[in-house]
């Protein structure tokens, strides 16, 4: 365990390990039957086409592709059968010409010139065809100039033989050099893993190239096959959904020199948004992985495929590192290519994690506290109105208009609300707002001006004696008679 921790680092808490050869995969809650796969692990698609009817004639229209797609045993059978039938047919034509001219009966007559010398029967006619077709030319059997029909048959034999050779040999060459054989040296991990990477829940699998030759313009794609039912009631048995493996960032373009770990980040846009460790045992899905690239040696496009069912996705696992630095090169240990180890991973889905995060940190809207302050200011305003109604008529007239205290309290409540909102601002904004000459001083000057205007209007409305006592618009409290001064003091206390 200590050696494993030194290899992986202290930040990984290894709970248990599992490898394809040395260990067993983590136990499942309940064993399942054999899962019907859409794509096998070797990339073969389990699809059979039936009830084609009259559409089978389309295969003959593309005969070359049909022969290439056939299995090897059928290719060899057609190859041998085509050459055998062609040779027997052409040998029969030479024998028919010799028979119609009577060359078979006069073969030993030295004074007679046959169409083909030394052709006595069908085996000798077959040997003459083989010598001509294979350009062996032993020299014992040869065509003469006394047989124009033989010359025409010789030309037809040469053209037909070239066509058959080009078709069958070309078919066998393409069959042997198919790029799908290059896919045999591209490896995929036996299991996929789900664990945390860079703080996000991520689906991961591994891909590797066993050859030193590169895959040019290698690109990888993932499809999720899952049955679902539409809101209209239509059942889709194999609905295909795209899994993002880095289309926006370019991570799907691979430089496949050493084994790479392909990642799909599970977020709100992912089909696995509500997938958890508990629900993965009840889900049924299949992840199809498609790797495409150009073979460097032949220039042909190659495609490798594999798939992962829900039983092959390990929750809370991560792949072993396989690359180590040696003297002057990097070494890849393919014995650990399929091996995984268990790491601490939350068992909840991304959707559940986001809901728990919202529940654990609720936000209190500031409008609640503001409404409380507004209510208190309104209550104060109402209390002041009651006090104003108890004053004598002269003092009510001195104070000016009836709505003056209300305006004053509204301005004060606005100032308190603004002070409350300033307290909610960050420290930098509070410092900026506290600089002299800002909006608070302007607001104070406006308030003072508004307070002075009603007072000046009320002084203008006083009798001449009181105007003289007020000192020409200054503060009049010091010049009021003792009775009025006492009534003012009683009012504000």
Automatic annotation (TrEMBL):
Residues 186-356 form the Inward rectifier potassium channel C-terminal domain. Signal peptide: none annotated. GO terms for cellular component: monoatomic ion channel complex; plasma membrane. Residues 445-459 have a biased composition (Polar residues). The keyword Repeat does not apply. Residues 39-179 form the Potassium channel inwardly rectifying transmembrane domain. The chain crosses the membrane at residues 76-97, 151-174. One of its GO terms (molecular function) is G-protein activated inward rectifier potassium channel activity. It catalyses: K(+)(in) = K(+)(out). InterPro entries: Ig_E-set (IPR014756), IRK_C (IPR041647), K_chnl_inward-rec_Kir (IPR016449), K_chnl_inward-rec_Kir3.1 (IPR003274), K_chnl_inward-rec_Kir_cyto (IPR013518), Kir_TM (IPR040445). One of its GO terms (biological process) is regulation of monoatomic ion transmembrane transport. Keywords: Ion channel, Ion transport, Membrane, Potassium, Potassium transport, Transmembrane, Transmembrane helix, Transport, Voltage-gated channel. Its main location: membrane. Pfam families: IRK, IRK_C. It comes from the Eukaryota. It is found in: Membrane. It is a multi-pass membrane protein. Residues 16-35, 434-493 are annotated as: Disordered. Belongs to the inward rectifier-type potassium channel (TC 1.A.2.1) family. KCNJ3 subfamily. PANTHER family: G PROTEIN-ACTIVATED INWARD RECTIFIER POTASSIUM CHANNEL 1 (PTHR11767:SF16), INWARD RECTIFIER POTASSIUM CHANNEL (PTHR11767). This is G protein-activated inward rectifier potassium channel 1. The gene is Kcnj3_0.
């Amino acid at each position: 365990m200590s050696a494993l921790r030194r290899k992986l680092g202290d930040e990984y808490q290894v709970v248990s390990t599992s490898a394809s050869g040395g260990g067993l995969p983590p136990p499942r809650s309940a064993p399942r039957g054999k899962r019907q796969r859409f794509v096998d692990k070797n990339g073969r698609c389990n699809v059979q086409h039936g009830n084609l009817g009259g559409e089978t004639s389309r295969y003959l229209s593309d005969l070359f592709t049909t022969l290439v797609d056939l299995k090897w045993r059928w290719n060899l059978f057609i190859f041998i059968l085509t050459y055998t039938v062609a040779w027997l047919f052409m040998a029969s034509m030479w024998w028919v010409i010799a028979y119609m001219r009577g060359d078979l009966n006069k073969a030993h007559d030295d004074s007679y010139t046959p169409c083909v010398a030394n052709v006595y029967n069908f085996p000798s006619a077959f040997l003459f065809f083989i010598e001509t077709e294979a350009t062996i030319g032993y020299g014992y059997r040869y065509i003469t100039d006394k047989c124009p029909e033989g010359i025409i048959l010789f030309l037809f034999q040469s053209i037909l033989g070239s066509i058959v050779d080009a078709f069958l040999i070309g078919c066998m060459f393409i069959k042997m050099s198919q790029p799908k054989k290059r896919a045999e040296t591209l490896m995929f991990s036996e299991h996929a893993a789900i664990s945390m990477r860079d703080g996000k829940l991520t689906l991961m699998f591994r891909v590797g190239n066993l050859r030193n030759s590169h895959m040019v313009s290698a690109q990888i794609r993932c499809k999720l096959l899952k049955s679902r039912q539409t809101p209209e009631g239509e059942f889709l048995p194999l609905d295909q959904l795209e899994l993002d493996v880095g289309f926006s960032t370019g991570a799907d373009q691979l430089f496949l020199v050493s084994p790479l770990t392909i990642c799909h980040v599970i977020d709100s846009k992912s089909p696995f948004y509500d997938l958890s460790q508990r629900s993965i045992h009840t889900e049924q899905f299949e992840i199809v992985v498609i790797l495409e690239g150009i073979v460097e040696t032949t220039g042909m496009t190659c495609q490798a495929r594999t798939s992962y069912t829900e039983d092959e996705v390990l929750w809370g696992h991560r792949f072993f590192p396989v690359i180590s630095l040696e003297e002057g090169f990097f070494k890849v240990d393919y014995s650990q290519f399929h091996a995984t180890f268990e790491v601490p991973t939350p068992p909840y889905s991304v959707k559940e994690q986001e809901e728990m995060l919202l529940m654990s940190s609720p936000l209190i809207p500031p409008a609640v506290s503001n409404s409380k302050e507004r209510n208190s200011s309104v209550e104060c305003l109402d209390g002041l109105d009651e006090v104003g109604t108890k004053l004598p008529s002269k003092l009510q007239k001195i104070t000016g208009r009836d709505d003056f205290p209300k305006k004053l309290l509204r301005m004060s409540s606005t100032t308190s609300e603004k002070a409350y909102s300033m307290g909610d601002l960050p420290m930098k904004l509070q410092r900026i707002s506290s600089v002299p000459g800002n909006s608070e001083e302007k607001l104070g000057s406006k308030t003072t001006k508004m307070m002075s205007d009603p007072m000046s209007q009320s002084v203008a409305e006083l009798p001449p004696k009181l105007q003289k006592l007020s000192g020409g618009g200054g503060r009049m409290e010091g010049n009021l008679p003792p009775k009025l001064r006492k009534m003012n003091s009683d009012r504000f206390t």
